[in-house]
Amino acid sequence: MDGLNWTMISESDGVSPSQPFRSSPTSRNTSEMATPMPFDVVTAVVYTVVFIVGLLGNTLAIYVVVRYAKMKTVTNMYILNLALADELYILGIPFLGTNSVLSNWPFGDFFCKVCMTADTMSQFASTFCLIVMSIDRYMAVVHPIRSSKWRKPQVAKVLNGMVWVVSFLVVLPVTIYSNVQEELNTCNITWPDPQELWAVVFILYTSILGFYGPLVIICLCYLLIVIKVRSAGVRAGLTKRRKSERKVTRMVVIIVVVFVLCWFPFYTTNTVNLIHIIPETKATTAIYFILVILTYVNSCANPVLYGFLSDNFKQSFQKVICVHKPNSVCTTEKKRGRKKAPQENHVPIGTEWKTAERSGILQKK
């Protein structure tokens, strides 16, 4: 179940996930709206793969940050929060898949509100996490000394909590107005009158707060970072600390770029659909399916980026994988180490006796 993905481009009186694009009220009917996606097998396979990869990857990222002391850096605290948001978003796939297969919502009205709220809140939390990470990178690179007293794991935990509080407040309209619509028996948002106006305002509201606004802030942060790095590079060479900061900054930048590539088509389609209503055909439905899956792929890609771009994450991932593989390289090395240890510390009995005898002779002399 994907709250924003279903509702942001739906008409004011609601629409099922099988009919994502708004159509003319005069041309719509219940039978058309209940039509399932034309590629059920492909849909099921893609949903399953994305769900498994995203769930395992984000669970692994959460585990290594919580488990290993060396991973509890300021940046990793924000990555932990991003992984939690991605995991919560991924957990909506089974409900989205169930609704697509059955063409109705079988879980009841209360659970509809819970799922819509959690799903939409996780999307905003992911975006706000990226804002916090970008501002943190700006402070670390541009104002390293001044920001040192604020850039601490304890402060990062407080900011992570604030991200979730703000995300919940932003999605309160979804919590209030989401329900199971009687005509279609689907979980969606039913806006009050005037419904069309509410729907348009909600699309603009979520697009600005959930994507375009944060994107401006993030771009501004990295623009200032680039200016600072270029000016500092002219004056002095790279120290070990600055190299480390650059590596972390590069990782955060790539995470942001992947986020933009995965979400920009979705939000752009929503905005275009306000100006010109996109007709619903098999082609547009397939395109919308790809756009929705692309947003989930973003949550799957993040743990992979952590592993490739951060040596600490890579080493921690390898440790966890080795623990669960009896014949892995790590386990083999541990066994070899145990075998070598006695040999290095072992002294033959004959040698001990000869040493003692020589010692005695020396004492007699």
The quaternary structure here is: single chain
Distance between the termini: 91 Å
Query: How many helix segments?
Result: 14
How many strands, which pairing sense, and closed or not: the largest β-sheet? 2 strands, antiparallel
Structural class: mainly alpha
Apparent shape: globular
Whole-number total of structural domains: 2
Any guess at the CATH architecture of the largest domain? Answer: Up-down Bundle
- Helical proportion? over 70%
Order of helices and strands: HHHHHHHHEEHHHHHH
- Identify the strand order in the major beta sheet: 1-2
| Poorly predicted spans | 3-39, 340-365
In summary, what is this structure?
This protein has helices spanning 3-7, 30-33, 40-67, 74-90, 93-102, 109-142, 153-170, 172-177, 195-235, 240-275, 282-309, 311-323, 329-345, 349-364, and strands spanning 178-181, 186-189. It has 365 residues and is mostly helical.
Task: Give a structural overview.
- This protein has 365 residues and is mainly α.
- It has two domains: 321 residues, Rhodopsin 7-helix transmembrane proteins (Rhopdopsin 7-helix transmembrane proteins), CATH 1.20.1070; 36 residues.
- Helices cover 75% and strands 2% of the residues.
- A two-stranded antiparallel sheet has the order 1-2.
- The longest helix is centred in the middle third of the chain and has 41 residues.
- The N terminus and C terminus are likely disordered.
- Pfam families: 7tm_1.
